[in-house]
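Audit log entry. Action: structure prediction of a protein-small molecule complex. Ligand: zinc ion. The ligand was supplied as SMILES and no pocket hint was given, so placement is left entirely to the predictor. Protonation state taken as written. Sequence taken verbatim from the request; no trimming, no tag removal. Recorded inputs:
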Amino acid sequence: MNERLNYEVGDIVKLKKPHPCGSQEWEILRVGADFRLKCMGCGHQIMTARKLVEKNTRGLRKKSETEAADIK
Ligand SMILES: [Zn+2]
């Protein structure tokens, strides 16, 4: 996949490796050289390098597609 994804806070990213809780989806809480991600399954938060996120991304769901579900 050569397409460069536009990661934004609030988007849901799906990664190749599932979290031990079984979820593969993470909410993006912060973007930058490092991303802060929150597991959609158990709420666990991690910091991870942007490169690793890009390498392991299998899908990205924009927050605009789910805005009805969760608005601050
Ligand atoms: Zn989890």
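Audit: result stored. The mean pLDDT is 89. The pocket of zinc ion is lined by residues 19, 21, 23, 39, 41-42, 44 (CB under 6 Å).
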